[in-house]
Amino acid sequence: MSSTVEQIKDKLGIVDVVGGYIKLEKAGTNFKAKCPFHHEKTPSFFVSPTRGSYYCFGCSAKGDIFTFVEEFEGTDFLGALKVLADKAGVEIVREHPGSKNETTRLFEILEEATQFFEKNLDTNPKALAYLSERGVRPETMKEWRIGFAPDEWKALYSHLSKKNIKPHDMDKAGLVKQSEKSEGDFYDRFRSRIMFPIFDTSGRVVAFSGRIFGSDASQAKYINSPETPLFNKSKILYGFHKAKNGIRVHDYAILVEGQMDLIMSQQAGLRNTVASSGTALTPGHVEMIHRLTDRLIIAYDADNAGVAASERAWKVALEQGLDVKIAALPHGQDPADAIKENPESWKKALTNSTHVILYSLENILRQAPEERARGKLVREKIIPLIAVLESSIERSHFVSLVASQAGVPEKAVWEDLEKAVRDKNAETPEAKSEVTSRNTHEKKNAVERRLMGIVYYFEAKNREQGSVFTDRIIKTIGKENYSILQTTYGSIKDELLFEAELTYGSGPPGDGDMEELLANFKEDYIKQKFTHAMTELAKAEKNKDTEKIKTLLHQCKVLSEELRAISKKI
Questions:
Q1: CA distance linking residue 483 with residue 474, whole number of Å
Q2: Does 263 map to a domain?
Q3: Is residue 336 part of a domain?
Q4: Which of 52, 268, 284, 467 has an alpha carbon 20 to 30 Å from 14's alpha carbon atom?
Q5: How confident is residue 133, by pLDDT bands cut at 50, 70 and 90?
Q6: What's the CATH code of the domain at 36?
Q7: Does a structural domain hold residue 96?
Q8: Same domain flag for 480 and 551
Q9: Which secondary-structure segment (H or E) carries 25?
Q10: What is the pLDDT of residues 267-321, one digit of tens each?
Q11: Which pLDDT belongs to residue 442?
């Protein structure tokens, strides 16, 4: 595996890889961008071509091309390896074919099942005819690897058994169920269903969604694989592996509800379409989209269930900072039917999509002609949506719009909005305490990190000058405390060195920088000693320890004078 990794790194530079996902700007010998792993207004994410790594000063994300793809795509190392090997044109060669971990084994079982279903579709004229009637072309069936599960209890089980695959592993992959009547007896989970493989971001099959095909009305229309070690429905968007490039290029994503909607939309040329596969849209789903674009068009089915699902989805998307619009379809129609009937009408619906707040307001005005009923619906459905908007300008715009169109006083809308914002921003004492503690810790560590970064910088660039600087640190805090710093930060040496290189470029830190840093560090160090001395003084006074009180008072006086002297220099 390592030789494959080395070949990929030889062919792909980190700037090319990261730049394929986010917009990079030149910053000296490095590149900078807004971090894709946390939301920020000013760039704190840096890429170093010479080191082949990246680092974010805002959230501490760091790594190489493999860790970047893993984090950005939400995949594992093998998934990132597949993505990068495809980009580099490198064939993945397993160095130890005999040793397979559970993850690899499950992927191979699911791939074998996918091929089995595909072959069964090719030999089932009725299933092929059904897909054709729904408007799916033969080349689309191949592209999305659509298959068919035979109407038999053990068709897949028997096929996999012949491949020496154990029932326990089939069960772990979500393909079979164990009989309740006979322990150790297994049967196929999917029977007489058109099979849609569900892919991870790297294009590997991780699960299936099976649509019923036959006359048994008692069966659920769709059944999905259960959650497995490979399949977490809250982290998988159907079609994302093919849509991610289209989303980047067009700078917006289209979200539909089902597999057929997704396949027909992609077939119509909208390659930036993804599907929630009938599951609730989660913050994890939205995060996947948000890393690629700030704009989302939701086009769920126009029936009552679809409208309810839309309302849940758009609230989640707005909370994550997306600009959300709704594409309206005639009542009772789903995107797949609309596209089959007239692909241009589908594209027109997307072009004419309406901001979610305006769309929701229009629905309320249709449903509630009475002013009192309108006011109640505005408070329940519109105000919570406005409250999650980040922009004050946007909030003000929609408050005025809602007030004028719904015929309610603007003052009342503002009052309800202020209450909703207060409720949204309310924090528990525990949460506030945690934030305060974290901020204090980060402030304290910032000086220490910079200090040790310079130490490691000198070690790499100029040992003689570094020795002088180290002596000055030891003189300030003592050998024992310096040893503690080395132990604390030694494990992230490369990270701190990267920070120092980004800060000081190719030249060493100037004397002014080092004097200021040492002064800040000494001030922080003395403050800690002063706080400790005051705590001990309180204990001594409580215990009426006269001698200790006298010693600690003197110590606090000396430390206080040192702090005043330092503050004059900084």
A1: 9
A2: yes
A3: yes
A4: 284
A5: very high
A6: 3.90.580.10
A7: no
A8: yes
A9: strand 25-27
A10: 999 999 999 887 778 888 998 899 889 999 998 765 555 566 667 778 888 888 8
A11: 42
